[in-house]
Amino acid sequence: MQKSLSIKERYKAVIRFFELNMPVAETELVYQSPYQLLVAVILSAQCTDKRVNIITPPFYTVFPDAESLSMASEEQVYELIKSCSYPNNKAKNLLGMARMLVNEFNGVVPSDIEEMQKLPGVGRKTANVIASVVFNLPAMAVDTHVFRVSDRIGLTTNSRTPLETEKQLVKHIPEEKLSIAHHWLILHGRYVCQARKPKCNECGLNELCRYYTKHSIALVK
Predict the structure, then answer these.
(1) Of 2, 42, 158, 217, whose CB neighbour count within 10 A is largest?
(2) Distance (Å, whole) CA 152 – CA 135
(3) Separation between Cα atoms, residue 65 and residue 70, nearest integer Å
(4) Mind telling me the catalytic residues?
(5) Distance between CA 37 and CA 127 in Å, rounded?
(6) Residue 168 class from Cβ within 10 Å (0-12 exposed, 13-18 middle, 19+ buried)?
(7) SS3 of 91, please?
(8) Which part of the chain has CATH 1.10.1670.10?
(9) How far apart are CA 44 and CA 97, in angstroms?
(10) Contact 15, 181 (CB under 8 A)
(11) CATH architecture label of 7-24+140-220
(12) Is the pLDDT of residue 221 over 50?
C-alpha cells in the first residue's frame, strides 16, 4: 500500500533510494569533448544511446571538431549517420550547429544554456544535458524517461510539458544533486520503469509509487 507522504518527504525518500542503490549514475553516451557530446546528444533524439555509440566513433574520426564538420557536405554527414533515426534532419542540424559554433563561438561549445539553444538542433533538453554533464551546472534535462518516471512516482503533478516537469523537479531537488538526479531518472526509466511494461515488481520504489498503487488496486478489483 502506498505511503501517504508530503511532497518534501516523497522527494527525500526517492533521493535516498537512488543514493543507496545507484550511487554512480552518468550518461551512457561515449564522448571525449563538449563538441563530441553535443553531436551525440543531437543524434540521440528518438534513437538509442547504443545506436549512437556505434555511429559516433567513425564520425569523430572523420570530423574530430566543429571546424572539420563545418566544411563537410550534407551528403558526407548523412552517410555516416544514416543508421540513426531522422538522418536527413540530423545531418542538416549537425552542419548548422558546427557552422554556427565556428562563426559565432570560435568553435567552442558555450556553457550558457540560452546561448546553446541558438545552435541548430539544440533545444532546451539538449542544452541542459550539455550544461549538466560537461560543465557541471545545476540543470535538469527532461527527456521522455524523466518525464514519465517523475509523473509515475509522484515527483511531479499535472505536468503537461517537459518545461513544467523541469520546474517542479528543480524546485524540490537540491541544486547539488540535479545533475545526478537527471541520470537516476533516465536510467530508472530505461531499465526498470519502462514505458510499455514497467518492471514494478522489481522496483524498490513501488511502495511510494502512484502508478504502482493505482494499477495494483485496479488488478485487485
Answers:
(1) 42
(2) 29
(3) 9
(4) 125, 143
(5) 11
(6) buried
(7) helix
(8) 7-24+140-220
(9) 15
(10) yes
(11) Orthogonal Bundle (1.10)
(12) no
Residue at grid coordinates 552542419: 95
**Residue entry with cell 520503469:** 193
Residue 72 and residue 95: Cα distance in Å, rounded? 7
What's the whole-model pTM score?
A: 0.88
The cell numbers describing 46, all together, are 528518438
CB contact set of 88 (below 8 Å; sequence gap of 6+): 78
Instruction: With cut-offs at 50, 70 and 90, classify the pLDDT of residue 4.
Output: confident
Q: Where in the chain is the domain with CATH 1.10.340.30?
A: 34-133
Which CATH number is associated with domain 34-133? 1.10.340.30
